[in-house]
DNA sequence: GTGAAAGCGCTAACAT
DNA sequence: ATGTTAGCGCTTTCAC
């Protein structure tokens, strides 16, 4: 007794394949295949018979088999570092919408900021032969890791962050510009000692946003004080601890630009621990504008990064790239928009 | 010229398969296959030669082909309604960890609360023949939709919510009990007019939490007032609008149990719009204890649902189920834990 | 310890 | 309009 027969016996019926339908209808598997895919070449009457029987028998299309033949899987791999950060959850959700609309499905891999795990996860994703991949690499990722994917001839679109030195489609925000806008906003309110909280040079977003910060200092002829530029991962803890150490400075700043909203939330919490309030006592600007940002108290002034457009855009770019692997590489930078809310105000001293 | 030759020419090298390696080494594909999988039956020297060449040629295992042969895909489908809700993002993240540890990969599908889209998405996931599926169905899902998956002989574990009338493994929180605990907490603080904000009878969590609320009323001999039990989806807007209408009541409540944390956040925002503060002026209890909850101001009193354990637990249950399809069905209820923070306090009148 | 051969379920040429 | 045939890349008997 073969495995197959066992399964059939056990469950009371044979696994239904094209062959089963073809046999019962006394047609060929080719006809059944074409009929199910609504090929114009098959007679309507035949299509009807095929489909009716397929439904009756509970036929389920086997994509592994089709993929083997067509070298198309209809899967889009998504490699993200963290989906617990609402910014990336929002991006993923937008991607999911676009991908589903295109009749494809997401194969998900995450790896935090661990390069070693990223390597394993991306290597594994590759084996499923997704039609393409949307990548948001861990900080510090080197070009050669991404080359492994490219070598497998899997089209890749980089999202939000881009790995240095690889020539691939990219969609993200114009982070440097966004941060500069935020800096100008704080300066216009009267702030002169402004900190930069979080981010690091291991990601392109970190580099760009930090560059936007130093560009702001330069534009207004303010001195660069290394004590005001605190490196850190995009977590709430970075903001919480960072704001504490800023406040403990002999000459503390009056405002902080945060690498992202989570850090800003952490910073606002830190202020409260010190009996201070964001806005009135210390200005905080976030970055991303996750849904939560508008609901904080005070609501967070932040840089809206259009995650919906960005996620959908990444999916669309990828689908185009799959269709035309030789088209010129594109870099799309979405213009961020500063959203002024309650967490920024003139400095106490200036009031 | 075949497609294959075109691809080979275009990219400068042929797609490397087991056959290519076998030919070059003058062994059979069987040997190569066994060698790469580290079979004890292959000579060490051969293994070394195979692996070295495989690496040199950039061989990538083709899981579609293997799946066709073995009827195993090593994919775990995850069907969620919403990954933008941090509660589900946290669950997904925990699942991802466990699944990756087991050498499997997530195939993701989401569908909001649309039954029609859920049907399409689940139908599509099924065609990929995942080894199993973790399901958190949309509200109002009928048993027959789930039967489609079961009929395809795909093991399913239900997570957090369970569809009425289906006999499948389930892991979730003991919601009724958790809500009752929260009710007791409010009662102990002196609240007597307590509202229930959000949830609906279309999901098991809605039913259980609302049942926990009415059980609380009964336990303390409080009257049921339909004006205090507001149905709604688990969004911030539900809390925002809900608290407004509660406050507009001729005899408003002094506290509200919320179906989840997002609703609680919305409710706290609504209080601020009315110049009131959670805790001091009106008590709010959430449910889930998402990371954000501890950071709000005031920090949210809520029911911790152990999303990490729950997510990992779902993955573990599923893997066991895949290993033994005939084992008895399990229902695991995790005991929720009330976390008291600043958003609850004695009612104004009682002070 | 290794090889030959069959076949998983599907699609695509080509033939009729 | 439908059938025949070959084969995608892998795993798995079964021989040797």
Describe the structure.
Two copies of one chain form a homodimer. Chain A is of the alpha/beta class and 351 residues long. The first copy, chain A, has three domains: 3-61, lambda repressor-like DNA-binding domains (434 Repressor (Amino-terminal Domain)), CATH 1.10.260; 74-173 and 307-334, Rossmann fold; 175-306 and 338-350, Rossmann fold (3-Layer(aba) Sandwich), CATH 3.40.50.2300. Helices cover 45% and strands 14% of the residues of chain A. Chain A contains 13 helices and twelve strands. Chain A has helices at 3-11, 18-25, 29-36, 44-57, 63-70, 86-101, 115-127, 143-151, 175-189, 204-219, 236-247, 261-273, 307-323; strands at 75-80, 105-110, 132-135, 156-159, 169-173, 194-197, 229-230, 255-258, 283-285, 302-304, 331-334, 337-339. In chain A, strands 2-1-3-4-5-11 form a six-stranded parallel sheet, sandwiched between helices. In chain A, strand 8, helix 12 (261-273) and strand 9 (283-285) form a beta-alpha-beta unit. In chain A, helix 3 (29-36) packs across helix 4 and helix 11 (236-247) crosses helix 12 (261-273). In chain A, 48% of the residues are buried. The interface between A and B is large, with 54 and 54 residues. The structure holds a DNA duplex (16 and 16 nucleotides).
Helical fraction of chain A equals 40-55%
What distance lies between the first and last C-alpha atoms of chain A, to the nearest angstrom? 87 Å
The largest chain-to-chain contact, stated as pair and per-chain residue counts, equals: A-B, 54 and 54 residues
Helix count of chain A equals 13
What's the Cα radius of gyration of chain A? 26 Å
Biggest sheet features of chain A: 6 strands, parallel
CATH architecture of the largest domain in chain A: 3-Layer(aba) Sandwich
Instruction: Report the sheet-strand fraction of chain A.
Output: 5-15%
Quaternary organization: homodimer
Name given to the CATH homologous superfamily of the largest domain in chain A: Response regulator
Q: Could you give the order of the helices and strands of chain A?
A: HHHHHEHEHEHEEHEHEHEHEEHEE
Structural class of chain A: alpha/beta
């Amino acid at each position: 007794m073969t495995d197959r027969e066992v399964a059939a016996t056990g469950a009371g019926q044979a696994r239904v394949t094209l062959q089963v339908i073809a046999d019962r209808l006394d047609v060929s598997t080719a006809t059944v295949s074409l009929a199910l895919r609504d090929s114009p070449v098959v007679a309507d009457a035949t299509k009807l018979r095929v489909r009716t029987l397929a439904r009756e028998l509970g036929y389920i299309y086997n994509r592994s088999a089709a993929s083997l033949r067509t070298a198309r899987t209809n899967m889009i791999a998504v490699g993200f570092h963290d989906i617990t950060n609402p910014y990336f959850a929002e991006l993923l959700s937008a991607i999911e919408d676009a991908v589903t609309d295109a009749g494809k499905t997401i194969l998900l891999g995450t790896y935090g900021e661990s390069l070693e795990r990223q390597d394993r996860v991306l290597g594994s994703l590759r084996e499923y032969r997704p039609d393409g991949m949307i990548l948001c690499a861990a900080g510090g990722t080197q070009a050669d890791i991404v080359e492994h994917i490219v070598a497998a001839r899997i089209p890749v679109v980089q999202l939000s962050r881009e790995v240095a030195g690889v020539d691939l489609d990219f969609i993200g925000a114009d982070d440097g510009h966004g941060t500069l806008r935020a800096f100008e906003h704080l300066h216009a309110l009267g702030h002169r000692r402004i900190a930069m909280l979080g981010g690091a040079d291991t990601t392109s977003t970190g580099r760009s946003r930090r560059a936007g910060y130093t560009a702001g200092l330069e534009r207004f002829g303010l001195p660069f004080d290394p004590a005001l530029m605190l490196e850190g991962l995009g977590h709430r803890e970075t903001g919480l601890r960072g704001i504490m150490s800023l406040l403990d400075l002999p000459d503390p700043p009056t405002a902080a630009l945060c690498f992202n909203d989570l850090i800003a939330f952490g910073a606002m919490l830190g202020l409260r621990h010190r009996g201070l309030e964001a806005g009135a006592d210390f200005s905080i600007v976030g970055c991303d504008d996750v849904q939560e940002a508008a609901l904080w108290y005070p609501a967070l002034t932040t840089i809206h990064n259009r995650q919906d457009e960005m996620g959908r855009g990444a999916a669309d770019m990828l689908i185009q790239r799959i269709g035309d692997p030789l088209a010129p590489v594109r870099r799309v930078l979405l213009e961020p928009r500063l959203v002024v809310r309650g967490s920024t105000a003139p400095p106490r001293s200036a009031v």
